[in-house]
Amino acid sequence: MKTVEITSGVHWVGVKDWDRKIFDALIPLPHGTSYNAYLVMGSEKTALIDTVNPGFEGELEDKINEIMDVADIDYIVMNHAEPDHSGAIPYLLERNEKAVLVATKKGADIARAYYDVPEDRVMVVKDGDEVSLGGRTLRFIEAPWLHWPETMFTYLVEDRILFTCDFFGTHLARGFYDDGVPDILTHAQRYFGEIMMPFSAMARKALQKIGELEIEMIAPSHGPVYRNPRRIIEAYKGWSNGKTREKVLIAYVSMYGTNEGMIKELATRLTAEGIEVVVYNLVNLDIGEIAKDLVDSRAIVLAAPTVLGGAHPLAVYAAYLVKALRPPAEYAVLIGSHGWHGRSNDALLEVLGGVNLELLGTLDVHARPRRGDYNELLRLTNLLIKKVRGDEND
Ligand SMILES: Cc1cc2nc3c(=O)[nH]c(=O)nc-3n(C[C@H](O)[C@H](O)[C@H](O)COP(=O)(O)O)c2cc1C
């Protein structure tokens, strides 16, 4: 893909990484991703906003050189220091002897630590600082902890374009503008769950800050550019406020079908009652999908057998994810099983210690479910339905 001029004098010079399968050695990328970098041309100066993942430096350079000599860039703005956006900085600073790196104070510290950027090539900016490019102004907006401590946004004042790096991002190689990707909000929700959900309070602060701006376009550094910024801003407001739905996320693992039988029963009953249910077998785990559904689920059910005196390791992992991602769910149910000594629920509760979830109950099946287990499951299911619907007084 060549460069794209998103508005006169503002060029996308990023990279589409169609082939990438995994992010942060953790999150599957079923649709690849992109590393968006933008060249902003003023009448006197030029700025590059964000760069690309290591390994794509040459492609970035070629794209910049289609428009101008890379050696003539004046500012390299680093909205975020994570290597997928800043990995090309050392390469660019070698190719260009005059450009300075623009970053927050924390960003500058991180750039020095990761990339040995010399002191005299860093320009530290703080909230509200502006840099004139000639007829165009870059304004820097500190937006820390989205999702590292140093993050900021850059606002192109005259064109009303907000460059937000990871915030509002999607892991999509396909599509260039949001209006060309009908299911963009699903991908954005997945990305929010994976990356931003643990920092929802900081996301709310950032949204409040940018609420004062006129925004015509949002240009994140992963995925499509938003020409309709309202829709994604409203979606982010809901997600970061922890707005949940009448929805239950069920994650289970089952070696010989005991837990599977229980959660099938549970899921069928919930569905028949009109409650939205998503069921994940942890054996085929795509944690991005779970993260997406954790964003708006009101309750979580984990089901797992006892293995080697604890819970099945995949369920331990799922419980750890719930703890780490800090979803807004209010209720939990744990289902377990054992052959001779039940331990799985206790082991999961240990992992979930400190998580703000009301435990509606646990069920522990010995070997295979019997009438008493099904009765208890029904009782728990009915309680879950009431809680998820908010029928507290029934
Ligand atoms: C590899 C393996 C390890 C197990 N370890 C334990 C254990 O430590 N304690 C126990 O009570 N049962 C243990 N079990 C028995 C299972 O917990 C029991 O069969 C359970 O009902 C399986 O539920 P599932 O079919 O949903 O996986 C083990 C089973 C297997 C296959």
Which terms would index this structure?
2 domains; 394 residues; binds flavin mononucleotide; Metallo-beta-lactamase, Chain A; alpha/beta; six-stranded mixed beta sheet; 22 strands; 34% helix; Rossmann fold; 25% strand
Can you offer a commentary on this structure?
The chain is α/β, with parallel strands linked by helices and 394 residues long. It folds into two domains: 4-240, Ribonuclease Z/Hydroxyacylglutathione hydrolase-like (Metallo-beta-lactamase, Chain A), CATH 3.60.15.10; 249-388, Flavodoxin domain (Rossmann fold, 3-Layer(aba) Sandwich), CATH 3.40.50.360. 34% of the residues lie in helices and 25% in strands. The chain is built from twelve helices and 22 strands. The chain has a seven-stranded mixed sheet with strand order 1-2-7-8-9-10-11. Helix 10 (313-325) runs parallel beside helix 11. The longest helix is centred in the C-terminal third of the chain and has 19 residues, at 371-389. The mean pLDDT is 97. The structure holds flavin mononucleotide. Flavin mononucleotide binds next to helix 8, strand 19 and strand 21.
